[in-house]
Amino acid sequence: MTDHERGSGLAGDDDVPGAWHGFGMVRPRVRSEAHWTEEQEVIGPGLQAVMLLSRLCVADADGPEIVDLDGNRIIDFQGAGGVNSIGHAEPRFTAALAEELTRATAGAFGSPARLDMVRALRDFLPGDLDMIQLYSGGTEAVEAALRLAKSVTGKHEFLSFWGGFHGKTMGSLALTAGARSGLGPLPPGYFSAPYANCYHCPFKLRAPDCGFACVEHARDVIKENSTGALAAIVVEPVQGRSGNVVPPPGYLTALGEVAREFDALLIADEMMTGFGRTGAAFAHQHEKVRPDVLTVGKGMGGGYPVTGVIAAEQTMAAAPFSEPSASSSSFGAFPMACRAVASTTAILTEDKLVGNAAVRGREMLDQLADLTELAPLVGDVRGAGLALGIELVVDKRTHEPAPKSLVQRVYLKLLEAGVLVMLGGNTLRLYPPLNVDRTQTETAVGILRETLIGIGREG
Ligand SMILES: Cc1ncc(COP(=O)(O)O)c(C=O)c1O
């Protein structure tokens, strides 16, 4: 029996020839192609690479599933890179937003939506990190966090990590090592150190026996580069762009100690990991570490563009950040954004989706783990909750990454078979919605297994 036959499957039109449980690109993509081509006459270049590759045009969506204009059903584990926390078209969410649209649509007034959001967040925010300022893009929230760190410390230097991603405006771009070629000059005072990416450890060591050599190195980077003005260390608790890299336990705590040594803040960029994605409300809570500032977004709005900076009251009180109009933005805390956060947080809480993310994520990791032996290209399978990574390599001994062309062929084969994933370098990144059920994950796992076991270097 093949993995396909074993998969439990969603209810679907199994009668479509070639479709497994009704999923996959089984109908010719005639309408989608015409639609995509017409759009591209006006849409500028530089769209997300996976969107350009897939050329998907979506007619309808429900939970973890999308249907393209030609009627092909696809399991969406790309999840807008972690945005899709409660699934497509969650009925309570759509009803709440539709109702909110009939009230004041513009203005950061006090509003029923804002009060509902505050009430929903009170129990959700971690410990004394209980104040939030809202924005509409991730990079905007990261920039605000940098301004906050400057306000608190009176300093202006930042340390970030190789493989990280924090956005594309000047401050966040300066934090994003390895992705700024051709975009200089960048602000001075930004330096970077290797992340705890154990599968590609630059020191060729193994955790936990390495004594966190990468943290020691980060300390040296600060000593060698800083003018004594380090404002913050900025780190993702799980690095998304480099393939959902999960550092060993204790890493964030060790970085927190380094930040203290230099009288600097620890900023945890929880844009992707926050609001339950990793099986804790916030990923830093897997450790006993208290960052000074969190940046959040993505899953927090269930698809509505809303992001935020979270900190304790005494941190937020620092000037100039705290002065009137100094930390606001045009769209920050508009009623629709607040309603989106209120509704998403209520659904996460009522349906216990943080726990579901932990359980489903562990099951998926177990079900995918042996691909490192069975699938010719799979070098590593990892994850935290429902942020999972399957790293493709051409040499399992040296961990030499699979080239881009091969990774793209694997991505398209998976799409053909019915699972849409996200890419990050040579890693397939999976972001199922946090309310995904076991039947749905097992169907996707079945497709992933069969496709990846069947694919070699020739693609
Ligand atoms: C950790 C992290 N920070 C910041 C950002 C930037 O967010 P945005 O694309 O909304 O500007 C992202 C986006 O992927 C992210 O993953």
Automatic annotation (TrEMBL):
<comment type="similarity">
    <text>Belongs to the class-III pyridoxal-phosphate-dependent aminotransferase family.</text>
</comment>
<dbReference type="Pfam" id="PF00202">
    <property type="entry name" value="Aminotran_3"/>
</dbReference>
<dbReference type="InterPro" id="IPR015421">
    <property type="entry name" value="PyrdxlP-dep_Trfase_major"/>
</dbReference>
<keyword id="KW-0032">Aminotransferase</keyword>
<dbReference type="InterPro" id="IPR015422">
    <property type="entry name" value="PyrdxlP-dep_Trfase_small"/>
</dbReference>
<keyword id="KW-0663">Pyridoxal phosphate</keyword>
<keyword id="KW-0808">Transferase</keyword>
<dbReference type="InterPro" id="IPR005814">
    <property type="entry name" value="Aminotrans_3"/>
</dbReference>
<dbReference type="GO" id="GO:0008483">
    <property type="term" value="F:transaminase activity"/>
</dbReference>
<protein>
    <submittedName>
        <fullName>Aspartate aminotransferase family protein</fullName>
    </submittedName>
</protein>
<dbReference type="InterPro" id="IPR015424">
    <property type="entry name" value="PyrdxlP-dep_Trfase"/>
</dbReference>
